[in-house]
Amino acid sequence: MQSNYSSNEEERFQVRKLEILDKSKGFIELLQQLTVCDSVSDKEFQERFQELSLYGDDHLICVIEDDCSGKIVATGSVFIEKKFVRNCGKVGHVEDVVVDSSVRGMQLGKKTIGFLMDHARSMSCYKVILDCSVENSVFYEKCGFKQKEVQMVKYF
Fold this sequence. Notes:
Elements: H1 3-7, H2 9-12, E1 13-17, H3 27-31, H4 42-53, E2 59-66, E3 72-82, H5 85-88, E4 90-99, H6 108-122, E5 125-130, H7 137-142
Parallel strand pairs: 4-5
Antiparallel strand pairs: 1-2, 2-3, 3-4
């Protein structure tokens, strides 16, 4: 790739679907910036990747690779839930959105969310929901989300 091509930020940071080789590009380490994520062996990664690929478009993980460094610098996922309510409607569930600390402020989170929203829209979802920390709520409001109801959780 020509050097002047990658100097353009729009070209440098392209959103795409997760690929099997992304583990070697820092995908798991990026997730560790978000939450508890132990090391994952190559075999475990391949098995989970294959398992998720069976869901087709109902489970999409996207990444942004820095064209200059070859590292994965942002990711997010959306799972499509099929329901009986709303005329057998569909709901998108956004999860695991994180941008590498070294490139925050470059609109990559917004770009990731936009990609996930476009996918949910293309899958005919009537809404998209997510859980986030209070600290991150301002970011999601800027992306068009609004606070609604209360999240509950029970860990096992």
